[in-house]
Design brief:
It is a single chain. It is built from four helices and twelve strands, in the order βββββαββββααβββα. The relative contact order is 0.14.
Length: about 190
């Protein structure tokens, strides 16, 4: 942390960096009035373990093998932390990242809604996903406002392939949306704040 307070009404954060979850976070420099604090900045996340992020967010249905990097808008107004849009991506140096389904019932429920696919083929594909997960070619995690006050939307889009001895299937843009509660968000902010 590198800061200065040139006047009683101006606090300048020139550098804020921390190690967390096997990676690092930093804040873009900002200034605020300590008596009426309003903050707008960006959190930069570098090489954070994907599983660590999902654990902090309370997500147990799947896991991500590999690290992610990106940015997240953050603010402070009237005593409340405000998270804005942000994007995290699988680090380009990761060539063996995998998206693994930890909760078979979640995936089976999604597959039950698929129509127009032969049952045998659907079951083989489901089996391959449950056994091997998705070998990630691209992963994008975005955070944004949810329709409900005090919650944010976590959206994960995965592309890659799943394969086992019976089949090899390319996967393009497999999307999972998840609303994060204020409690889970508070726990995450407590870890990095």
């Amino acid at each position: 942390l590198d800061w200065a307070m040139p006047t009683m009404r101006r606090l300048e954060i020139k550098r804020f960096e921390a190690s967390i979850g096997g990676g690092a976070i930093s804040l873009e420099p900002f200034a605020l009035d300590p008596f009426k604090p309003v903050l707008q900045s960006q959190i930069h996340i570098d090489h954070l373990e994907g599983n660590q992020l999902l654990e902090w967010l309370g997500e147990k249905r799947f896991s991500v093998e590999g690290s992610v990097s990106g940015r997240l808008a953050i603010g402070w107004r009237d005593g409340d932390i405000i998270l804005g849009d942000g994007i995290l991506q699988l680090d380009s140096s990761e060539h063996d990242g995998r998206f693994v389904f930890e909760d078979p019932s979640f995936l089976k429920e999604q597959f039950d809604s698929f129509g127009g696919i032969q049952e045998d083929l659907k079951n083989r594909f489901l089996s391959a996903l449950l056994e091997e997960g998705i070998e990630i070619q691209s992963l994008e995690i975005s955070l944004g406002a949810a329709p409900e006050t005090g919650k944010i939307l976590l959206r994960m889009a995965v592309s890659g392939e799943t394969k086992n001895e019976l089949m090899e299937v390319p996967i393009e843009g497999f999307v999972i949306n998840n609303v994060i509660s204020g409690e889970d968000l508070g726990r995450l902010m407590g870890l990095i704040g």
